Amino acid sequence: MFSVRTHSLRRQIVLSRPIDEVFAFFSDAMNLERITPASVGFRILTPPPIIMQAGTLIDYRIRLFGIPMKWRTLIETYEPPTRFVDTQVVGPYAKWIHTHSFRSVDGGTEITDNVDYQIPWGPVGEFAKFLFVSRTLKHIFDYRGKQIIKIFGSS
């Protein structure tokens, strides 16, 4: 029997802005479109306003590898201004847990994105991860970091 492997992606940046301001930006789900590459075709389907709190469900439409799909996440943990966690309820991954962490540091705020994910479809999914899934996720999060720096500036 083939066991499903958990993979991780981690990105960290420091912004020269206060933690409350940075957390407020990330707590507004509508800002996700601003920091996601256009190639992902990311659109929020949940009508605004979206009240961020533990238990909030958010529906999106995305396009991964040219295939349109729906994605639903659950805000599982919401601890302003230091952390929130969204998990995939419906979407392309067998598992997706995205932890957003915020920490005050000298001169600003450190943001850490940590994603733990599993690819469905056993060995075929692992091969797809090797071919393009890892590279695509890295591209999305690298783009996200560049956009965040454009919006806030770096330290």
Description:
The chain is an alpha+beta fold. The protein has a single domain, classed as Alpha-D-Glucose-1,6-Bisphosphate, Chain A, domain 4, CATH 3.30.530. It is 26% helix and 40% strand. The protein contains 2 helices and 7 strands; from the N terminus they run E-H-E-E-E-E-E-E-H. The chain has a 7-stranded antiparallel β-sheet with strand order 1-7-6-5-4-3-2, with helices on one face. Strand 5 and strand 6 form a beta hairpin.
Q: Poorly predicted ranges (pLDDT <50, ≥5 residues)? A: none
Strand fraction:
35-45%
Task: Please report the first level of CATH classification, the CATH class.
Answer: Alpha Beta
* CATH topology heading: Alpha-D-Glucose-1,6-Bisphosphate, Chain A, domain 4
Biggest sheet statistics: 7 strands, antiparallel
User: Total helix count?
Assistant: 2
- Please write the string of helix (H) and strand (E) elements: EHEEEEEEH
Strand order of the largest sheet: 1-7-6-5-4-3-2
Number of E-type strands: 7
Number of domains: 1
Secondary structure topology:
Layout: E1 7-15, H1 19-27, E2 43-44, E3 57-64, E4 67-79, E5 83-90, E6 95-105, E7 108-118, H2 122-152
Antiparallel strand pairs: 1-7, 2-3, 3-4, 4-5, 5-6, 6-7
Summarize the structure.
By secondary structure, the chain is of the alpha+beta class.
Task: Spell out the key features of this protein.
alpha+beta; single chain; 7 strands
